[in-house]
Amino acid sequence: MSILKVARMGHPVLRERARRVEPTEIKSPAFQKLVDDMIETMREYDGIGLAAPQVHEKIRLAIIGIEDGEGRERHIRVLPVINPELTPIGRDTAEDWEGCLSLPNLRGRVVRPDRVQLRALDRRGNRIELDLEGYTARVAQHEIDHLDGVLFIDRMKSLETLTFMDEFAKHWAHQDD
Ligand code: ZN
Question: In 10 A of CB 103, how many CB atoms?
């Protein structure tokens, strides 16, 4: 496995619409290696999600991190999704901080639907359908936005909360909604 180079804001690949993955591609060793490399890259940089365009691959593939456990037990489960589609469930929205490996050292508050239904193919090519809620729903929406060339800053109602990480740690990290 290898750690991939992450595109940063300003690289055109982050603004393009990614193409759908053909089901026949999924089982190829190259595709499976990309999935493994994306998982390793996400872990290396402490991300909670990673989309293929962030590693310069213009395909509809993303890794969604799902936080499990608390404190020392905390770990991130990874769910690779292919050709994902999201549908909001209900009308509830939530506002929370987001960051992005392509916008290093920045955080900003984004309002998004609080519950979504996710439909996709898994890395074996099987159909999956999941209802996601809270932070995991947010991660899924953030990653799938990348497949359409959308960054979290585009979703911010205003740039007033756009914050450097060290200022975030000083002023905002311990405030919970
Ligand atoms: Zn991102």
Answer: 18
Ligand 1 centre to CA of 119 (Å) is 20
In a domain, 1, yes or no: no
The residue from 22, 95, 143, 167 that is catalytic is: 143
Q: In this predicted model, what pLDDT tens digit does every residue of 124-157 receive, in sequence order?
A: 999 999 999 999 999 999 999 999 999 999 999 9
Ligand 1 is an ion; its neighbours by CB within 5 Å are: 100
- Determine whether 143 is an active site residue: yes
Q: What's the domain count of the chain?
A: 1
* Residue pLDDT, tens place only, 58-114: 999 999 999 888 888 888 899 999 999 999 999 999 999 999 999 999 999 999 999
**Domain contains 115:** yes
Q: Do the domain assignments include residue 6?
A: no
The number of C-alpha atoms within 13 Å of 54 and in the hemisphere containing its C-beta is 28
Q: Give distance in angstroms: CA of 115 to centre of ligand 1.
A: 19
User: Range of 75's domain?
Assistant: 12-171
Instruction: Flag whether 177 is in a domain.
Output: no
Nearest alpha carbon to residue 151 among 40, 54, 34, 77? 54
